[in-house]
Amino acid sequence: MKDYYKVKTSPKCREASVVKGEKYRITVLTEGLFRLEYSESGKFVDEATQTVWNRDFETPEYLVKDEDGQLEIITSRLHLIYNKKKFSSHGLSIKGQTRLAWYYGEEKDNLGGTVRTLDEVDGACPLENGIMSKSGYALLDDSKALLIGEDSWIKVREESEEDLYFFCYGRDYRQALKDYYHLCGRTPMIPRFALGNWWSRYYPYSEKTYLELMDRFKEEQIPFTVGVIDMDWHVTEVDPKYGDGWTGYTWNRKLFPDPERFLKELHKRGMRITLNVHPADGVQAYEDMYEEMADAMGVDKTKKLPVNFDISDKKFLEKYFEILHHPYEKMGMDFWWIDWQQGGNTKVEGLDPLWMLNHFHYLDSGRDGKRPMVFSRYAGPGSHRYPIGFSGDTIVTWESLQFQPYFTATASNIGYGWWSHDIGGHMFGYRDDEMEARWYQLGVFSPIMRLHSTQNEFLGKEPWRFPMEIHLVMNDFLRLRHRLIPYLYTMNYRSYAEGEPLVEPLYYLYPDAEEAYNVKNGFFFGTELLAFPVTTPRIPKLHVAKTKGWLPAGTFIDIFNGMIYQSDKERKVDFHRDITSFPVLAKAGAIVPMTDEIFDNAASKNPGSLRIKVFAGADGSFRLYEDDNETCGYETGHCAVTPMKFIWSDKPEFQVGAVTGERELVPEKRNLTLEFWGITKSQVKVLEGVKEVPCETSYDNEKNVLIVQVKGHAASETLMVQFTDKVMLGENHVEQRVLDFLQQAEISFTLKEKVIASVRRQSDPVLMAGELCSSDLDPELVGILMEILTARRN
User: Fold this and answer.
1) 29, 175 contact by CB (below 8 A)
2) Which ranges of 198-313 would DSSP assign to H, the alpha helix?
3) Among 110, 376, 409, 458, which one is least packed by beta carbons within 10 Å?
4) pTM over cut 0.85
5) Which pLDDT tens digit goes with each residue over 670-685?
């Protein structure tokens, strides 16, 4: 095996962690994680497996009792009772911190994980188990996983044994996930360019039509960092004796007469390129590289016999990359889209070809020192080591859209944080312009933003295909995705370093709040934001959509309209939004670094200017992470960090600290635009070090946003913004918000007058709400007004 195919693992546990009998072995990996093995032969596995790479945990404190044929192992989290015989429901049980106990063979209240693919799924589908449950325990069965030998090649287990990992963390979900990552390997960082917009479509583009499309996007000021070329990049119309042309490695010269020129043109536009491959049918005699591949594999090329795909053959694997893929990478192709749909069988019993493709494509892509990446389907637990995931060909319906927020967040329960969906839906279904806009909005607040659709001529995702109202929303959100890249890239590092995915379910932070489980469309988007995507149509005539949400106690500010939500108790909220936005809330004290440098090559670099959004109501801090965006230097700490701190008081202060680490990675000076949201108007003084520096200020009365602009801030200096006036949380401008809503609602003018008169009669929002609720108004209209009137309640 080539050196770059060898993986670093630490599969042997510490001897002090092991409790062993003749046919059983129990390893206390952590206070809440046990490895449970049973083997009739008494032989056990100490090698890495396809899933488990690292069993070298520090030995926790535990107590062992072994009396009268019964073994007990006790830690701070769990209590195991075992009769030392073949595992059974009456012989093996574990009690956790809750009153519930697990008996061998049981599965209860699992919170779900993910699935291999959403191909042809219309709406929801069942999910495989994750490593978390409301009952406090979950089981990961590794018994059938193949082993990874010292040469990093797979091998079959010599003995049949039960090999189970029992997670018992109560509702400490984040700790369970961190230990899972230690056990199975970290999620690596993805390159910066992957966080921008991807253009993808299954369509027979030519060099000319593809570049013309990119030029039109530029005219529309719509940025992209990744161009996906689906299967028509290669020859697909072939003699039936060679199959159906689904698998191919030969450029279609009718469409792309000069592939290298085409790839260079996309690179000039700041885009990276991925090509789609379906490798199942091997290499047929019509392929450009057939003779070389046939010679390498000892196939009689005079008979034009196919070179069969056999990922379990070391020699085939080597030539598969060397002959079929590396030349195209030298030509300018950046990473591969592995579109495997042909089942899970190989010549090696139990070996899933998809796992092999993901594993070795990922390793191969990093052979020259660049940051590895592969784009492929999920192949079971441990797949988080091979980002990015392609979730498959979903149906274009509201039901499919409604499932995706829950699906994405729940995948974190098995550590899978980098799903890429076909944003807008792939095929079938129906046209609904509003649905498409909402899907784009969800895509911007998803791990990967990749537009995609099939060849149907009516299914194009170009924004200008839609009515102007929808068109403008799509354009705005595609630009927003690129503005968010500094924040997203920091969360990319957090996922690697802290074991906390970008998208997390609400119950990770609020495990004892029942509504955190019930509001399935809500999720945390990094450390600072809480999102509730709109996945249903607008209410007729009222022109706003309703989405059910839940907020913990505290203060939250909508990042689009500035609405302040405040309560000293958790509560359910019905959010109402027009087509221009959906509820994305920043916690009080949140700091969200963004940029306006979003086009061409600038989107993949550390920006020369930052737009930093700071949200009032509490203290906050943030550490902006930056590195070279391309290599694995992040693994050894080659990075630059900009600390930021907000102190909330009647005279707040905001500090942008001097850059620490490798300062040469970031611009020497940056222009800063600081937005303070949810705050009353104030004068400010800006200091760089001890010297006062000039700034420009403005104030948005509607959204309560104070804007401070500073030019040429030096990375080596600390910048301090001091508020010279007493400030407070801003107001929600209730009357104006009601007026704005009524202005666009298609209801009777008399009713509009009645509603605004009622609002104006009362200065107390609670009394206003009471009066409206007691009047004879449509319930949907009352709900919209109630959100505005009661957003802040203590």
Assistant:
1) no
2) 207-219, 259-268, 290-297
3) 458
4) yes
5) 999 999 999 999 999 9
